[in-house]
Specification:
This protein is α/β, with parallel strands linked by helices. It is 41% helix and 15% strand. The radius of gyration is 17 Å and the shape is globular. The structure holds zinc ion.
């Protein structure tokens, strides 16, 4: 299995990262993608990727971590520093996004999103996208940009029509802890309708704990819980093989 979204660069993993990785490897999670959130964390992702051949990373500005004081005039410098930080070991741009529940102005979020999508298009890199109450905006901006390198819609939740709109734009749907809860039924149905060839596995560690593990730090080893639900949803399908293949295709990763 590949955990396509785990924030192993965060401080809450710094004391026991070796144990976290080895617990995951023990249950069959063989590769990890760390999405970038802000420049203060990018270096840690790069360091971890050098230390563990099983770790890959993307770099980007997550809207949650942007300063509230951010203005239009600040954006070009942020994009320049992202461009400078990207080396050949960086496999994509993200976690970028638009989130209507944040205090940061939507106009500034859209401008940052567009700028990072533009950079990804220029460099030929896939995206990892965060959404909250913003599918309409994200789908609209990706279409407007004619973005053509695909990526992952992190923590997909929504109906079949929304899922299909992303798939038509070349994206896969990130499937995580949400589907382990009874309320994940609508999303499970949407995934079943669009098919496994558009799904990838993720934990969002340390966030989004699995059903029954609320209040605990989430870890890549619990990807097994997501796998079990997907195997019950797609009876008789090779969930691990198919989702691995999807991540490898999106990020041009070598066979894991
Ligand atoms: Zn994330």
């Amino acid at each position: 299995m590949i955990d396509s979204h785990c924030h192993l660069d965060l401080a809450c993993f710094s004391d026991d990262i070796d144990a976290v990785i080895s617990r995951a490897l023990d249950v069959g999670v063989g590769h990890f993608i760390i999405p970038g959130i802000d420049p203060t964390h990018w270096q840690q992702s790069q360091t971890l990727a050098q230390r563990y051949p099983q770790i890959s990373y993307t770099l980007g500005y997550h809207p949650f971590f942007l300063p509230l004081s951010l203005t239009h005039a600040d954006i070009p410098a942020l994009i320049d520093s992202l461009k400078l930080a990207i080396s050949t070991s960086c496999i994509g741009i993200g976690e970028i996004g638009i989130d209507r529940t944040l205090a940061l102005s939507i106009d500034i979020q859209i401008e940052m999103f567009d700028a990072q999508v533009g950079l990804a298009q220029q460099l030929g890199l896939p995206l990892i996208i965060h959404h909250r109450k913003s599918h309409d905006l994200i789908i609209g901006r990706l279409k407007q940009a004619k973005f053509s390198f695909g990526g992952i819609i992190h923590a997909f939740s929504g109906n079949q029509a929304i899922a299909q709109a992303y798939i038509d734009l070349g994206f896969c749907l990130g499937v995580g802890g949400t589907i382990t809860y009874p309320r994940g039924d609508k999303t499970r149905q949407a995934l079943l309708a669009v098919g496994l060839e558009h799904c990838v596995l993720e934990t969002d560690s340390p966030d989004m704990p699995m059903h029954g593990r609320q209040g605990q730090r989430n870890e890549p080893q619990y990807l097994v819980d997501v796998l079990k639900v997907l195997e019950r949803t797609f009876v008789g399908h090779d969930v691990v093989g198919k989702t691995n293949e999807n991540v490898q295709r999106l990020f041009s990763l070598a066979v894991i």
